[in-house]
Amino acid sequence: MTAFTPTHRSKVKRLHERGRYDEESVFAILDAGILAHIGYVIDGQPYVTPTAYWRRGRTLYWHGSSASRMLRTQKVGIPVCVTVSLLDGLVVARSGFHHSVNYRAVMAFGRARFVEDAKEKEAELDYFIERIYPGRVATLRPVNQQELKGTTLIAMEIEEASAKVRTGEPKDDDEDYALDIWAGVIPIRQVVGAVENDPRLKAGVALPEHLRRFTDGTRFDSLVADSTGRLAKAAE
Amino acid sequence: MTAFTPTHRSKVKRLHERGRYDEESVFAILDAGILAHIGYVIDGQPYVTPTAYWRRGRTLYWHGSSASRMLRTQKVGIPVCVTVSLLDGLVVARSGFHHSVNYRAVMAFGRARFVEDAKEKEAELDYFIERIYPGRVATLRPVNQQELKGTTLIAMEIEEASAKVRTGEPKDDDEDYALDIWAGVIPIRQVVGAVENDPRLKAGVALPEHLRRFTDGTRFDSLVADSTGRLAKAAE
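^ inputs. structure came back:
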């Protein structure tokens, strides 16, 4: 099993029994999400920016306009922390102290760099769309040079990463299990809603086959994990 | 309308037309979420930790064990950035470039401090439970001194904050609207699942009235915004 080597920086300290360092655990969480929180520092001040991301091997990618403060700063290669978290449920305990949440989270550390090569840039942006909407890129108006130029693509090789996961029922104090207090789990999940046509959609254009899996009520993390997993496997 | 004054630190630079600084916009997002991403710096290295939080007026709170690296560091009052984001949908455009997501996000800046007073600590921890499960605290085994001591409570007065929101359909290039490409929005929402009893639940203990609003399929952000809003109003 390939694993990341935890150091002082990435080792899970609080509730360390929830920590995992193997690639499989880390990648499974990264591949089920689309929104990361990117932490970076300017003049001692921390910033946390939510942004869409994707993973290829041990590299994370995200993009944005070159006007963005974050990206301008990262041009010199500052250290960043990329955190992805998925909320899975409310843990309802018999005492206030033991109330908790079920979640899957990854903290990944590394140094961000610009991807400058136009071909690599285009391939990565296509991958980002394909991982969510497999089959879509071939149906789109192709990207043009101006757009490629106007898109800043950032890559970060993961130097260290840790996953932290909580699942299951509350852990109450032994003597509290005798109390007449309800306890359990309220699951939380992210789901897809009913697809909405663009009001300016050209007459006669139907929802394409590649978007039909987005049906009302389907778990979004499962959809993303599934298509990302198949894409990653095909690339091996 | 009361508003935060944006400075260099909090002003929305990228896609600035999406930025908002009024308390109402900022608080509405903070009160609809329960998971924040807290950014802080140790020796120049950024860390982003996902954690449950709540708001009272212009103050944000979160808690954890005093063993946590983050909390130990914050004991000296380092600057933090608290980001809350809610993903509302996938924006599916006619070109790769215009694919986007709908979201609501807040970045809040300030300095974290420990809450040391036991009474204030207890009141805040109760509030945290009441904002998600109104009516629950009165039914629980009361908190004990050891638990209060073992819980580290952090508070941050919001010095500056900005909200950033994207809603609605794709914004495609004018000439692309003539193409035979489907475009639109796939809504994403966080919902509650079917409530699960603790396997060790005492026989005869039924789901209490105060948890009955957590019905399978209900939007979680609406539930939280609703109960938090009523609690905040009652406190005015």
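Strands of chain B lie at 19-20, 35-42, 45-56, 59-65, 79-92, 100-115, 151-157, 160-166, 184-192, 196-197. Residues 16-187 of chain B form a domain with the Pnp Oxidase; Chain A fold (CATH 2.30.110.10).
thumbs up if we can close this ticket
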